Amino acid sequence: MTVLILTSEEDVTADMVVVHLNGSGVPVVRLDPADLTHGVSLSGEYVHGRFRGHLSVGGRLVSISGLRSVWVRRPGVPAGRAPQPSAWLTEEASQALYGMLRGCDARWMNHPDAALRARHKPWQLRLAQRCGLPVPATLITTFPRAAREFAERFPDLVVKPVSGAHPQDPPRAVPTSRVAPDTDFSAVAFGPTLLQRRVAKRADIRLTAVGERLLAARKTTAADADPQEVDVRFATPGPPWEPVEVPARTADAVRAYLHRAELAYGAFDFAEDADGTWWFLECNQSGQFGFVEVETGQPIARTIAEWLSRPVPEEPAELDEAGSAMR
Amino acid sequence: MTVLILTSEEDVTADMVVVHLNGSGVPVVRLDPADLTHGVSLSGEYVHGRFRGHLSVGGRLVSISGLRSVWVRRPGVPAGRAPQPSAWLTEEASQALYGMLRGCDARWMNHPDAALRARHKPWQLRLAQRCGLPVPATLITTFPRAAREFAERFPDLVVKPVSGAHPQDPPRAVPTSRVAPDTDFSAVAFGPTLLQRRVAKRADIRLTAVGERLLAARKTTAADADPQEVDVRFATPGPPWEPVEVPARTADAVRAYLHRAELAYGAFDFAEDADGTWWFLECNQSGQFGFVEVETGQPIARTIAEWLSRPVPEEPAELDEAGSAMR
């Protein structure tokens, strides 16, 4: 049984996991959908109520029914590197590849449906609330009056995008920023705006969840930190990330979140306040973990490799004589 | 409790359903996401573990927790008609609208996740097989040799796109066509190709499923029909669509398909062969039904209206004082 990794060639984070998979002797196929149909080939046959599918990369053939898990890391646009790329070819290649893989019984990290859903920030906030995670008071609105009333109730606010990165090429992260006390909210009418009560934080928390395993890291806010720098991604580097234990209540809530979101992997960001409460900011279903592993020494890559290596649940074996046509 | 319909203004099929909803006195809000933020507004507040959200269209305000169902018909691109449209505004508006709606407890026809998954033809074929529907032998491949061997086993083939319509503007349907006996399959290497055994059909079947209710129509293949015209959408008009009973085994299999696909609505296409077998061709989760209703008199629009009108399952009521800020 093989582990399939969908990612681009220059993904060093995937390399970290592959090292562990190779070390334990688990077969791995790494494939970038961008290389369809130039380097990567596929074939699937539906005959007499059965499906037999194969992928080929670099001359190596793997049976789709022989996949134990699929890791969707940073896959390229299907057929994006074809000699004559087009929107039509991308659509055809995407439907063919993901359509076949979606029909297989492998375990996913993360399943494309769960991944897509998990990207919705408003949905994240609601799910976090329902799972019992503390969520800072948040408003998403196109009503200037609602924004003004919210700012009266919660005078210390930050503003951030509702979606993730700005879709320019390459995409650019939009930093979270503080809202000035005298802000005029009339421009809110032109686009949905996310306002959130600023948590006066004494640390940032990054909790990386791999299956049932939770690995948390903490970065103390420097005493002399600029109070305008609320976004750790853009702040001047302060103290390093250090491993921290996950409070039991938070662990239960995080596991409930992952279960209801049907995610096998998630990178949670929290802000820790002066009382030690972890305030939920977001859960990135494809968040990077390399920087945390490097600074803390936590075995995230190894944990992912172990999750991917687990055998699939028992299922009826399918004969595989059709593969011969593609060899 | 209100029915929310997401569709464009000029959707006459939606009009058919709205007539029935109005007739039974069920409140309806019709909204095109393209009108965000110019005519349509939204606001959602996450405070103290609770969510209170509102949509406003044409000055009318509706609470998101007061929605009984959401019908995703033919919604426009979010913020597509904004005064200054952009990819970024569309992304923000899409995440805000669908992110809030995804967190509510309304019943969906169809849920966006299920709708997206259901578009994958290879996945459809596999699910149909698993539910016991007869599927004509099918190959999806980029291996010319696999295509050649398949054509030797099944000499009478059709070719069709793996995905749906060609993504030009406006999108164009690509007809299913017969494959000539002397076809050279070497071009298969340049893009995934779907080959399928041609069913020598004596009728086309369109089965419209609305919840548990199945409404099937049959169009006899004319005796003098051009055998090259395999795609009913592009064939010369023959006999009309007529209501037909669904065989019990097919009904069970179709209901199993809908259940596993988590679809509340689906338009199934079958080809009926000389033995009377219905061969599964595809299930379009957003397939049109107006033409069938007009020709057969089957009450599809009324059935959809009834499905949308059903009360949501019991849930804790949420107070609604926050709406005042947006009025």
Description:
Two copies of one chain form a homodimer. The first copy, chain A, is of the alpha+beta class and 327 residues long. Chain A is built from eight helices and 16 strands. The first copy, chain A, has two domains: 105 residues, no CATH class; 183 residues, 2-Layer Sandwich (D-amino Acid Aminotransferase, Chain A, domain 1), CATH 3.30.470. The first copy, chain A, has a five-stranded antiparallel sheet with strand order 14-13-12-15-16. In chain A, strands 2-1-6-7 form a four-stranded parallel sheet, with helices on one face. In chain A, helix 1 packs across helix 8. Chain A is globular. The C terminus of chain A is likely disordered. At the A-B interface, strand 3, strand 4, helix 2, helix 3 and helix 4 of A face strand 3, strand 4, helix 2, helix 3 and helix 4 of B. Strand 8 of chain A pairs antiparallel with strand 3 of chain B, so a sheet runs across the interface.
